[in-house]
Design goal:
Oligomer: heterodimer
Largest interface: A-B, 38 and 33 residues
Number of strands of chain B: 0
Distance between the termini of chain A: 42 Å
Number of strands of chain A: 0
Number of domains of chain A: 1
Order of helices and strands of chain B: HH
Strand content of chain A: under 5%
Structural class of chain A: mainly alpha
Strand content of chain B: under 5%
Shape of chain B: rod-shaped
Largest sheet of chain A: none
Helix content of chain B: over 70%
Shape of chain A: globular
Radius of gyration of chain A: 20 Å
Radius of gyration of chain B: 23 Å
Helix content of chain A: over 70%
Number of helices of chain A: 7
Largest sheet of chain B: none
Order of helices and strands of chain A: HHHHHHH
Distance between the termini of chain B: 67 Å
């Protein structure tokens, strides 16, 4: 099937129906493997067993930023090509991104209390992630406020692209400012600073979370296409009654 | 497994993550069930989209 055919919502739905069971199975298997690896991973010499929080905190942070990246690409699709499937992809990603950003904030707080002595500090990394969460809420509110989906998509796309400036700020905040949050330790020049016995389960968990995001996003996109069909049919029904 | 003196923070972190993922999965599944029911009801009332009507007219 040529890639352009997927731009047709009906063909996209058919593909989603075929792919989702396999994607779900791959997600479950990846989590089973990742959690078993995280379970047997050794404690950190400084942080002790609290390092196990990293196996969910880091993937959640990654997905919080990935979802905004997906929304930014979709925003370009909306503004440049005015494609309705791009609107659908952007709208479906927002609640998922918000949920994983919330997970990042909650698990980070719970990790911070025993390690830093505080649940929260207004340093650049924590604040920029909180801003990301608030931006997600703003985009979700926009989608719910503007009734016409095409108009809502354009307004949300502009806000998404403006908000994309926050993603590099989150990534480099620990380098640009003095923060209580530790510097980059997975993706950094000179290689990872994490011992392989802890890094390996972390990478598996990142892969599992990414598969979970793909599964949820595809399912949410399928729902959004169905929601638009319901809306169209209700409008036709109202026209017929008028 | 010995989670050390900060076990409560580790357990709460995993509980929060499970609750959030469960919430997302429930949201997607319940939303799909509701939308499928609404689509079914509209179909039963004979409401069809223009693209579907065009499809039926084609030989």
């Amino acid at each position: 099937m040529p890639l352009i055919d997927l731009a047709n919502p009906s063909r996209f739905l058919a593909l989603a129906d075929r792919v989702l069971p396999w994607l779900t199975a791959a997600t479950v298997l990846a989590f089973a493997f990742g959690i078993s690896q995280a379970y047997v991973a050794p404690d950190d010499y400084q942080q002790g067993a609290t390092v196990k929080i990293m196996f969910i905190h880091v993937p959640a942070a990654w997905l919080g930023m990935l979802a905004w990246g997906v929304m930014s690409l979709a925003a370009l699709g909306t503004l440049v090509w005015r494609h309705p499937l791009a609107d659908v992809a952007a709208k479906a990603a927002a609640p998922i991104g918000a949920a994983f950003t919330l997970m990042c904030l909650v698990t980070g707080s719970l990790w911070g209390r025993p390690m830093w002595g505080t649940y929260w500090v207004w340093d650049a990394r924590l604040t920029s992630v909180l801003v990301l969460f608030l931006m997600y809420l703003g985009v979700i509110a926009l989608w719910r406020t503007v009734e016409d989906p095409a108009r809502a998509a354009r307004v949300a796309a502009v806000l998404t692209l403006v908000g994309a400036i926050n993603i590099p700020i989150i990534k480099f905040s620990v380098d640009w400012w003095n923060t209580l949050h530790q510097p980059a330790s997975v993706l950094r020049l000179g290689g990872s600073a994490i011992h392989p016995t802890i890094l390996a389960p972390l990478l598996v968990m990142i892969a599992a979370f990414t598969l979970l995001f793909l599964t949820l996003h595809l399912a949410a996109m399928r729902n959004e296409i169905m929601r638009r069909r319901v809306r169209t049919m209700l409008m036709l029904q109202a026209d017929a009654r008028a | 497994m010995n989670l050390g003196p900060h076990a409560a923070f580790i357990v709460m972190s995993y509980a929060a993550a499970i609750a959030i993922v469960a919430g997302l999965v429930a949201w997607v599944m319940l939303d799909r069930r509701r939308l499928a029911r609404e689509l079914g009801e509209l179909d039963a009332q004979g409401i069809t989209r223009r693209s579907e009507r065009t499809g039926q007219e084609k030989p």
